[in-house]
From TrEMBL:
GO terms of biological process kind: endoplasmic reticulum-plasma membrane tethering; lipid transport
This protein's name: Extended synaptotagmin-3
Organism: Sterrhoptilus dennistouni
Keywords in alphabetical order: Calcium, Cell membrane, Endoplasmic reticulum, Lipid transport, Lipid-binding, Membrane, Metal-binding, Repeat, Transmembrane, Transmembrane helix, Transport
Top-level taxon in the UniProt lineage: Eukaryota
Lineage: Eukaryota, Metazoa, Chordata, Craniata, Vertebrata
Length: 730
């Protein structure tokens, strides 16, 4: 990039002068004098901080790369418009650019086309020059930045893509507008322990008025505001179209609504690939970038299927289908709506000479598309009676049998309709593929005016969770507050537990999870007050199972009475043993990480080795990440006579969030699994030095199984290690 940057600058200077300048001049009478007086792209070129290549989750006929782009440029561009001088002196841009090379071919150039887009809106800052008095007004400066950001988003952020064909006669329509991967339905339920933000005269703290902003790509929704409540209940549902998985995330930001400026109360980022794999996730998530607060979300993944039986109307008013409109082009649009309206009315107005000139111009048209109460607008094609838009739009459909798509083509100059069309979605149901690809005759237009579109209808299907799959959400330790769960029928009541044992706090999130009752603390836990005792979530399952084994007459754990989640006997909860650090391992008789038998069913209450795990750990300075290679395990202790299917899960404590948890693949029926899988935690070295690796080997059992889940765990204190040199060890 550094070598090529001056040449790129020269090409761009030429483009600005020869292509952009004439285009700007043609836009409006006031811009006719526009001239670029200085174009210099500077010495500093963009930097690519990291590249990620996807291999597992994608089609074999494509290469998918994510590029972390950082541009802190010293470019200078100045232009004169009549008497004003306007310019840019420096730009900052950060974002993740996805590059897809597809389809891969067996002959040169080996790649059919390149597709580029940003996953989320890139962060952009522009340093304006010239017209200083106007653009330095804070509001206008921010406004101009956000306008340009929106302009970039409208062209470069999903679902918009730039596709460049590399091979001649390559049909790129399906690459520019692929069918979305699915729909995520987000139930925003409630939050608790939010931070107080309202203060009066800087002293008295009142209760906040929280609301949530939810985002996937460019789509954003806002919840209602719950006034004066730090434990708000929303019970609202939002639906988002998901175009790229892995890659797209659900972003949730909480704000306190204020008359002047809304205060930030915390945020949440959830990778949608895990939700797609788990199908349904119902979790309490800890909020980040704040001191306290948890958010309860239920997330459902909906697949797009070509199945008319799934189109029955949803009684709760939720969507049952999605309509994808590929808006291609129009033909023979009238120059103005007088061409087809009352001729008499037209001649009267045409006497005005100025108006006549305007009438003879070709129309500058855009399209309004409406389904139900949602309207979307296309870009504007200037001065053409055969405009080509080439855009895709998606709409949620509640009833495919009764709803329609309304099309209206308008002229930007005169805001008059050049033609309309109505397509009943029931027409799509007559086609076995629920697709229409044709020209549609325009009403209220010339007799030979058409619009060319492709319409695709797909039903939304709630996928059933796979009982064999290790759930990332429900079975993993809860990222939210640790609740002892009282089960009464299907209703789950939560009671926040008091902290029993004193544990050095690592962070707010993990302090609750670390609060295991110590064996030597002398606190006997009675069954009576067990509902309030802190039961760490990973243990709840093994306790239920232990109880189920001891009292067969109770039936399965889910049918236990509300007091039955009590801890059966104290030895089951041994003191959590932290693994010795690697430097002190040399003094041990065998240099290995013995998997400690904490929180398992323990024979005679004594600690016994449960096998070994081989790990390679180092810090990659260039990538600014901690690399953990899970090589394999040996001599694991089986938890049942039907064999075990082990996998390894990793946390970098104190972060126990579901979203930052790493997990290997599952190896079937073996006590000596070989993984050789690599994981990365992107943190600075000084941060990593303060953290602890928490590694657990688990059994991938069926969801309703009685077997023990955890086969053993180990902890490594990273503050004691030379991470740059790294270590590899059993």
């Amino acid at each position: 990039l550094i070598q090529a940057w001056p040449y790129f600058g020269t090409i761009m200077e030429k483009t600005f002068k020869e292509v952009l300048e004439p285009k700007i001049r043609a836009k409006s009478v006031h811009l006719k004098t526009c001239t670029f007086t200085k174009i210099h792209f500077g010495e500093k070129c963009p930097r690519i901080n990291g590249i990620k290549a996807y291999t597992k989750e994608i089609d074999r006929r494509q290469v998918t790369l994510d590029l972390q782009i950082c541009y802190i440029g010293d470019c200078e561009i100045h232009m004169d418009i009549s008497k004003f001088n306007l310019g840019v002196k420096g730009v900052q841009l950060y974002g993740t650019l996805r590059v897809i090379l597809e389809p891969l071919l067996t002959d040169a150039p080996f790649v059919g086309a390149v597709t580029l887009f940003f996953m989320q809106k890139p962060h952009l800052e522009i340093n304006w020059a010239g017209m200083s008095n106007l653009l330095d007004v804070p509001g206008i400066n921010v406004m101009s930045d956000s306008l340009i950001q929106d302009f970039i988003a409208a062209r470069l952020v999903l679902p918009n893509r730039i596709t460049v064909p590399l091979k001649k006669n390559m049909n790129i329509a399906h690459l520019r507008f692929p069918v979305p991967q699915g729909v995520i339905r987000v139930h925003l339920l409630e939050a608790e322990n939010l931070v107080q933000k309202d203060n009066f005269l800087g002293a008295i703290r009142g209760k906040s008025d929280p609301y949530a902003l939810l985002r996937v790509g460019t789509a954003q929704y806002r919840s209602k505001t719950v006034s004066r409540d730090l434990n708000p209940i929303w019970n609202e549902t939002f639906e988002f179209v998901v175009h790229e998985v892995p890659g797209q995330d659900l972003e949730v930001d909480l704000y306190d609504e204020d008359p002047d400026k809304d205060d930030f109360m915390g945020s949440l980022l959830i990778g949608l690939v895990d939700v797609m794999n788990d199908r349904t996730v119902d979790e309490w998530f800890p909020l980040s970038k704040t001191t306290s607060g948890h958010l309860h979300l239920k997330l459902e993944w909906l697949s797009l299927v070509n199945d008319q039986e799934k189109l029955h109307e949803d009684k709760k008013g939720l969507s049952t289908a999605i309509l994808i409109v590929y808006l291609d082009s129009a033909f023979n649009l009238p120059k103005n709506h007088f061409e087809y309206s009352n001729g008499e009315c037209g001649t009267k107005k045409m006497k005005n000479n100025k108006y006549l000139k305007k009438m003879e111009r070709e129309p500058s048209s855009f399209v309004l598309l409406t389904v139900g109460n949602k309207t979307q607008k296309s870009k504007t094609c200037n001065f053409s009676k055969d405009p080509t838009w080439g855009q895709a739009f998606t709409f949620f459909v509640h009833s495919a049998h009764s709803q329609s798509l309304h099309i209206e083509i308008k002229d930007k100059e005169r805001d008059s309709a050049l033609g309309t069309s109505v397509v009943c979605l029931s027409h799509l149901l007559k086609d076995p593929n629920m697709t229409l690809d044709q020209r549609f005759q325009l009403d209220h237009s010339s007799s030979d005016s058409f619009i060319k579109m492709k319409l695709v209808l797909r039903a939304l299907k709630v996928e059933e969770p796979d009982p064999q799959r290790v759930k990332a959400g429900v079975n993993a330790s809860k990222p939210g507050p640790v609740h002892a769960t009282e089960k009464a029928g299907n209703q789950q009541k939560f009671s926040s537990p008091p902290q029993v044992s004193k544990v050095p706090p690592m962070s707010k999130d993990s302090a609750a999870l670390e609060s295991l009752p110590k064996k030597d603390s002398g606190e006997e836990l009675d069954a009576k007050d067990s509902s309030g005792a802190p039961v760490p979530c990973e243990i709840v399952s093994s306790l239920d199972e232990a109880e189920g084994k001891q009292n067969p007459e109770h039936g399965p754990p889910s049918a236990l009475p509300s007091g039955a989640v009590a801890m059966p006997t104290l030895p089951v909860l041994q003191e959590m043993r932290v693994a010795p650090s690697v430097t002190s391992l040399g003094s041990l008789p065998s240099s290995c990480f013995e998997l400690s038998s904490s929180n398992l069913d323990i024979h005679n209450g004594t600690e016994m080795p449960l096998g070994e795990i081989q790990l390679t750990v180092r810090y990659a300075s260039i990538r600014q990440s901690l690399v953990v290679l899970v090589n394999g395990c040996r001599n694991l202790v089986p938890s049942s006579n039907r064999g075990v299917d082990p996998y390894v899960r990793i946390y970098l404590l104190p972060d126990r969030r579901w979203t930052s948890r790493k997990k290997t693949s599952v190896k079937k029926k073996t006590l000596n699994p070989q993984y050789d899988e690599k994981f990365e935690f992107f943190e600075s070295l000084e941060n990593v030095k303060k953290r602890t690796l928490d590694i657990a080997v688990k059994n991938n059992r069926p969801f309703i199984s009685q077997e023990r889940k955890e086969l053993g765990k180990v902890r490594i204190d990273l503050s004691q290690e030379d991470l740059i040199k790294g270590f590899a060890q059993w």
